[in-house]
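Recall the central idea of this unit: under ordinary conditions, the amino acid sequence of a chain determines the structure it adopts. In this exercise we apply that idea directly, starting from the sequence alone.
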Amino acid sequence: MRPIGDRASADDATSALETARTADTADAARSADAAELGRLLRGGPFHLALRAALTARGLPLHRVQHRLAARGIKLGVTSLSYWQQGARRPRHPESLRAVRALEEILELPDGALLRLLSTSASAPARGRPTARPYRALVSVGAAVEELLDAMELPADGGLHTVGHHERVRIGAGGEMRARDSQQIVRAHRDGVDRYLAVHHGDPGCDAARVTVTAHENCRTGRVRHHPEAGVVVAELLFDARLRRGDTYVFGYGVEDGTGARSSEYVRGFSYAGGQYMLQVRFDEAALPVRCRRFARTGPRAPRTHLADLTPSGRHRAVHLVEPSVHRGILGIAWDWE
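Accordingly, the structure predicted from this sequence is:
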């Protein structure tokens, strides 16, 4: 029989050997991370260099946010996530100040990240569908992009629509009173936690009086208005953070009623695919003489795929259903006389 003391010594030796192997593995991983960080700091792109620096230092985003806040810099975890994903690049003075602070927090050479921002814009993430810009979808696209830029939100929200049911209500004066939307979306990148609802009122719309209300599975975040263009952009914050491939169901409503008499309702689509249903309901005191569905490739393109629609039902409503949308514009137009 082997003495107990000998067994303990053998166990201690084995444990020490395993500890040494673990340490060697950890050292090798740290060395690889450091080499990759050095390569990215030399050649970029910015978002991958930032991500590698966060990994090398082992700092989660909420701790980075706290350290920025201690320096008097307010920056959300979502913005940091957008930066490291390449969905958004810091450009405004306060954002660039945050980048300088990040270089200190992440123990990087002065100007290491800022230098990468002066190079060409980061390429879209591999495998991400290409979205059409707002300028290609709506006449006020420039105003929409201006609001998104001020909010430091990406024009590509990381989502595309699987299904969208939309109901529009026209008031007694022919004005667009309200619309309700229920959507099913799928994330095409990790970390998506919000949807951007864009509303463009009819001529005369008072954007400041337009309200956006969150319904199921979301809540209202920041809301911004562009008075000259009659545009409202609202964040709808999800109850969960999505991973790539995840689907999500949510609903919201918009109350308007501030614009002139309406003659059409349109919806722009950045991506192909997904079902869309649009219903327009008219007040009995203001019934159109003719309704038609149509499609457009852009805001200034001619209407195509015209088809007459006959109001029916107790609420005198018309609708269209598109089983699989194409990139571009779908809508319903009506004549009052």
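Confidence is low (pLDDT under 50) at residues 1-8, 19-26, 120-128.
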